[in-house]
Amino acid sequence: MKHIKSFLSVLLSLTIVFSVAAVSISSASATTIFTVNDVQYSIVSNYEAHVYKYVGTDAVVEIPEKIDARVITAVDSSAFYENESVEQVILPDSVLSIGDMAFMYCTNLKDVDFSVNLNSIGDYAFGGCTALSEIDLNSNISSLSVGMFDASGITTVKIPYNVKTIKKNAFRNCNSLTSIRIPDYVTTIYENAFRNCKNLESVEIGSGISSIPATVFMNCEKLSAILIPESVTSIDVTAFTNCPNVSIYGYKDSYAQQFAEENSINFVLIPEYEIGDVDMSGIVDIRDATLIQAYSADIKPLSDYQLSLADVNGDGAVNVADATQIQRILAEFI
Question: β-pairing, 88-90 with 120-121?
Fold first, then answer.
């Protein structure tokens, strides 16, 4: 019997060696770690593993979708923390989540190729990534997490369609950010979300927002224009602390106007435009039809307010049908 047990032990050892070729395995507490190409992976089950820690110095790191039978489904917290070598990370479509501080202080990180199935990004995931100037998030993301881009080099952000919430500190200390447009589908912004963005000059808030919280734009010293929709019915008195040159753009008799007047902030009245007057010139003409066509071809962006003016046929979408409708209307007057 002893011989049989000994034989089985040897056989099992050989199976492990051959199935995980060029892989080192270690055990830290209850977590079993194996390493492939300077990437440590934690074993979750027989069929799943996570990126646990990157210990290499390569500029480009590509994570495989599967190693042996295990699918890589997550990047764990602090996996790339303070790695100053990595410049690009390519994630497979199997990755569903990125943990807290996963890439924090990766000061040379410039690009992350996200999984199309990614649905969760942890707090401060890209905090302190000063070389990261833009990022393209997929539509599965429902919130921008606490401190997600805090003190990063972000200059351009396209907020995905499903994002409802911008949490506190999400863009705090982003000194390269000069403008931001918060789409209509975002419903909540938390305090300090844009605090200390020293070069932020203009903000457009969408109609999904009803409240502007405390210190959200505090110390944005260059902020000169913020458009506040009629949907906003509450603004904390500290929202624009130390924003000496800010002007609030809003509508007549709106809460934005009341707040500006009560707090001695310059208020600029936004005139009401006729449906179809997409360029807001005061008249509906062929230039508006051309502008809609350019938007439909992804040539020229439109603000949320312009999009409301561009939906000429009232079907809830802006496309060439609206441009055609303007052309038909104009033809009747020729």
Answer: unpaired
- pTM for the model: 0.78
198 and 239, same domain (yes or no): yes
Contacts of 265 (CB under 8 A, 6+ apart): 240, 246, 247, 248, 259
Residues 190 and 248 reside in one and the same domain: yes
- Residue 35 is assigned to a structural domain of this protein: yes
Q: What is the pLDDT of residues 191-220, one digit of tens each?
A: 999 999 999 999 999 999 999 999 999 999
- The reply to whether 237 and 189 lie within a common domain is yes
Q: Residue 12: is it exposed, middle or buried by C-beta count within 10 angstroms (0-12/13-18/19+)?
A: exposed
Q: How many domains does the chain have?
A: 3
Measured N-to-C along each axis, helices 320-332 and 286-296 cross at an angle, to the nearest 10 degrees, of 170
User: For residue range 301-313, what is the model confidence (pLDDT) as tens digits?
Assistant: 988 778 889 999 8
Question: Does the pLDDT at position 13 exceed 90?
Answer: no
| Higher per-residue pLDDT: 15 or 280 | 280
Find the distance separating the first CA and the last CA of the chain, reported in whole Å: 102
